[in-house]
Amino acid sequence: MGSLFEVVVFLAIATLGAALARRLGLLAPIVLVVVGLVLSFVPGFPQVRLDPDLVLVGILPPLLYVAALETSVPAFRLNLRPILLLAVGLVIFTAFAVGLVVHLLLPAVPFAVCLALGAVVAPPDAIAATAIARRIGLPRRVVTILEGESLINDATALVLLRVATMATIGTSVGVGDVAWEVVAATGGGILVGLAGVVVFGFLHKRITDAVLDNALSLIVPFAVVFAAEAIHASGVVAVVVTGLGIGHRMPLLMSAASRLQIGAFWRLARFLLEGLVFLLVGLQLREVVRDLDEPLGFLTAITAAVLVTVILARFVWIFPATYLARLVPRVRQRETGPSAKFPIVIGWAGMRGVVTLAAALALPLTLAQDRPYPRPLFIWLAFAVIVVTLVAQGATLPAVARRLRLPPDDPMQDALSAAGVQQQASRAARERLDALADSAPKAVVDRLRRGLEDRTNLAWERLGGTVRETPSQAYGRLRQEMIDAEREVLRAARDAGRIPEEVLVRAYRDLDLEESLLRQETE
Fold first, then answer.
1. 347 in Cβ contact with 314 (< 8 Å)
2. Which of 23, 36, 24 is nearest to 275 (CA)?
3. How far apart are the C-alpha atoms of 173 and 367, rounded to whole Å?
4. What gap in Å lies between CA 8 and CA 280, rounded to an integer?
5. pLDDT score for 99
6. How far, in Å, CA of 154 to CA of 124, rounded?
7. Average pLDDT, whole number, for the chain?
8. Between 179 and 155, whose confidence is greater?
């Protein structure tokens, strides 16, 4: 009961912290980390030591899965080169840069364990980057690149960490061993992920009950991770591949009721998990600093060195990766060189998160031949990187984006594209209706034609801007008033005993669905 009470307390604090962040116009991850930092020193407040396995197997998979479900596969494929350059190339570059700096400052510590620390702090957080990027309205391509990077970079870092850890504990690691580890982890993860798409896609298509479909969706990321771990493959890669595949085919695999319920469920699950994760990161501060015994001057110097290396390495990699690729004729013909504003924003969006802390806690207790090393110092360095990048870079990223004045996505172009496609869809729907018109009363067919016309008009109305109220907005405003009046009558009838509760619930459900549709159409 005590543990359950603590979980409820943490969830309540995470919810209140997120609500406070919205009220103040701040970013929830930053607020929750700061709240956790403060609460970690409150006497008597429950202290939780993060279990690395809980994070890497229990929390990360569902968050990666829902992010992959919502990722556009065509956009991901179109931006695959910059995504891989960041998620693979930058992670390796940062890991070696940090490992070299730490080894220079701690020459008695083997380079392999310094490289392990580099792998720990190398990957930006999958949650923070995309949450902040979407919140401040960065251009769609920048968001896609950051999302794609955050989906894959954990796999690169964890594979590199596994190889470096093998060397630190005395296992002989050669070039062949490294190559095999990469192939086995990545290739095995891809195969397990593709198998997950086939198996769970088949099950989703056969299930007609929305509740069962939702339950299966919750099981998928954990089942895929356990299957990948069983063959020593990358669970991160497996989850991402399965999520991308299921998300891309979701309209063909699930009913409308299932998609609506799954979307609502994952929004709630992600909200709670993300809030809990960032709160728990902040709560680790007291545990992290308790075991430190280095002199303050040295601790400050090495922390600053690692932070500067982590931040600068991202910029040092991004600019050549962005512009040198344009020297290839095929790339130059397909893409124009972007403004320097884009790599600056992407470079500043390198916030670290809970995976970094979990990986740090998974560092070996001792080296080969039971030789000690400053493990508490390494955990502190990882923690400092998380807090500084998340709070400093996350808090200033909106200002950086505003100062650079990145060209936003053109809403008129989006509306024009949507209207054109809606026109084609309406034509197909009208042809289908005409073919089936003889099988229904004329009044029903006429009603369907009017509804189709209204939906087509709504798409074109969005091209008119927001200077005046469009006909569809007027319709939504008036229909909302009518729905409110209907609800009052239904509630009064229930209270007076003229209708049972079941009738009220069904009527309210229909009105709620119509109101949700109205809100989506007028937004």
1. yes
2. 36
3. 15
4. 13
5. 94
6. 8
7. 84
8. 155
Say how far apart CA 19 and CA 86 lie, in whole Å: 33
Helix (H) or strand (E) segment spanning residue 2: helix 2-24
Phi first, then psi: what are they for 110, rounded to 5°?
A: -55, 150
Give the per-residue SS3 of 28-66.
HHHHHHHHHHHHCCCCCCCCCCCCHHHHHHHHHHHHHHH
Cα angle value 237/243/247 (rounded, 5°): 150
Tell me the average pLDDT across 221-247. 93
| Dihedral (Cα; 291, 5, 276, 156), 10-degree rounding | 60
Assigned token pair, 162? 């596994």
> Is 56 in contact with 232 (CB distance < 8 Å)?
no
Distance CA 204, CA 467 (A): 44
> In the chain, what percentage of residues exceed pLDDT 70?
88
94: closest CA among 359, 305, 316, 299?
Answer: 316
Both tokens assigned to 504: 């009220």
Helices (H), 207-324: 210-230, 235-253, 256-283, 285-290, 296-323
pLDDT tens figures, 435-464: 888 888 888 888 888 877 777 776 666 665
Q: For the ranges 101-105, 226-230, 329-333, 380-384, which has the lowest average pLDDT?
A: 329-333
Instruction: List alpha helices for 79-208, DSSP H.
Output: 80-84, 91-105, 111-121, 128-135, 140-168, 175-206
What is the rounded distance in angstroms from the CA atom of residue 132 to the CA atom of residue 306? 24
Euclidean distance between the first and final Cα of the chain, in Å? 44
pTM recorded for the entire structure: 0.84
Work out the pLDDT band at 238, boundaries 50, 70, 90. very high
Separation CA 477–CA 459 (nearest Å): 18
pLDDT per residue as tens digits for the range 84-127: 999 999 999 999 999 999 999 999 888 888 999 999 999 988 66
CB 285 within 8 A of CB 40: yes
